[in-house]
Amino acid sequence: YTALAKFDKAEKYYKQALSILESLQDKWAINQAYFYLGVNAIWKGDYSKTIEYMNISVDGFRKIGDLRELGICLNNLQRVYYYLSDYKNALIINEEYFLVAKKTNDNYAISSALYNYLEIYLATGDYEKAKYYGFESYEVSYENEIWFVYCLSNIGLGVLHLEEGHIDKALEYLETAKNVDNENALWGKFPLFLQNYIVFLYSYLAKTYIKQITQLEYDNKKKKQLLQKIKKTIKIAIAKCKKWTNSYGIALRTKANYY
Prior knowledge:
Shape: globular
Helix content: over 70%
Structural class: mainly alpha
Number of helices: 12
Largest sheet: none
Distance between the termini: 35 Å
Order of helices and strands: HHHHHHHHHHHH
């Protein structure tokens, strides 16, 4: 139900499961139940609940000593601080996540933590660090065929180049990410429930097309074609982001920029 964006129903079942697990005194499963409650809350946009549930899960897995599950929880905990623009705490938590990823030699987690650095440093305006970590994430994810993170790293590098005014380079990365997303829909390169994390791609694609049309010279025919492309991409962005609180705002702002 979380993946279907039916968050209240999902929470109901998670809490029922938690009650059963507490009666069984299954500590590992209790921590995982709190983790899923946290994921449900972050997708819903209830950040205070996310922090509450994820901290319980983080503390529980740290006590048990399950580094893999600890890393997964830390990754989601840093994300909620990123959404809150609390980049200081996001960075602190991501540093622990990165250390755990390296301890467990988990390439997925390593590439994911590197991507998180890209996002955080991009948001704080440190483009050199963002670029460094972005390329690191890009390389690790590509070499190990971690297509979800590879898609994210292409989006992040595309947004970075967009911010720097490198429109052609931005489109190169963003359209690569779009191709990965399209291939995933056909071949299942990564779980479909993860797609809510990449739907913001289409908003940035539209933003880049808008920049393209305002900065470059076009004849009327090409301008008309690009305007149609922008309109179509914005329509896709709105449709894909509408049920996901964390991505819907950028889609609406991009639509406003179009008009």
